[in-house]
Design brief:
Blueprint lengths: L1 E7 L2 E7 L1 E5 L5 E5 L7 H26 L6 E4 L5 E10 L4 E10 L5 E4 L1 H5 L2 E4 L4 E4 L19 E4 L4 E9 L7 E5 L6 E5 L3
Antiparallel strand pairs: 1-2, 3-4, 5-6, 6-7, 7-12, 8-11, 9-10, 9-13, 13-14
Length: about 200
């Protein structure tokens, strides 16, 4: 016997209801009352909650399926139809931080973006020491990182595809565990943990 709640004349009262358990979807149980062979209020609520749980879980699964597993954070960029996906912020043995991200075309048509200036305008913010870390360059002034784009620095991203980009920054002191990553044309990714 299990108690069931029934509202009568605006009041609630408990009564004992015999029930048998039927396996439901994803381990949920549906109780069927003995009174008139119909489902009791408790069983309707149980079924309703199970359906709601399935809908919520399936929507969450769709969202997770759309987000690659290696993405730390993502945001829409200022380029219409292009999403920036932060993939890595890692402290390297040469006292630099390697940052990798993707610019993903979320449309059904190719998009051309100007990448050279945007890569050079990317930087890290050290919130502890209040310092801005610019991209590391070699002796000739070339960025230590991705060299993509044509002679003018333009790159085309195919429909529903992405391009991977990486750069290096001077590392903040070892005591700094989080930084803000500012990628051009994208809202800042703040308080990002530095992996080792």
């Amino acid at each position: 016997m299990e108690p069931a709640v029934h509202a009568m004349d605006g009041t609630a009262r408990y009564e004992e209801v015999e029930s048998e358990t039927h396996p439901g979807v994803y381990g949920c149980e549906v109780s069927q009352g003995s009174e008139r062979g119909g489902f009791k209020m408790a069983s309707k609520v149980t079924v309703g909650l199970a359906v709601m749980a399935l809908v919520i879980c399936s929507r969450a699964a769709v969202v997770e399926a759309q987000k690659p597993t290696d993405v730390i954070e993502s945001a829409d960029s200022e380029w219409s139809g292009v999403r920036t996906e932060l993939v890595e912020v890692k402290r390297m043995s040469d006292n630099t931080i390697r940052v990798r991200w993707r610019w993903r075309n979320t449309t059904n048509k190719p998009i051309s973006i100007h990448v050279r200036v945007e890569i050079e305008d990317t930087y890290l913010l050290d919130p502890v020491n209040k310092k801005k870390h610019l991209v590391v360059t070699d002796v000739k002034g070339h960025v230590i990182g991705s060299h993509i784009g044509d002679i003018l620095g333009n790159e085309e991203i195919a429909a529903n595809q992405a391009i991977m980009v990486w750069v290096r920054f001077p590392a903040p002191p070892a005591s700094v565990g989080k930084v803000s990553v500012v990628i051009a044309r994208t809202p800042p990714f703040e308080d990002v943990a530095i992996s080792k």
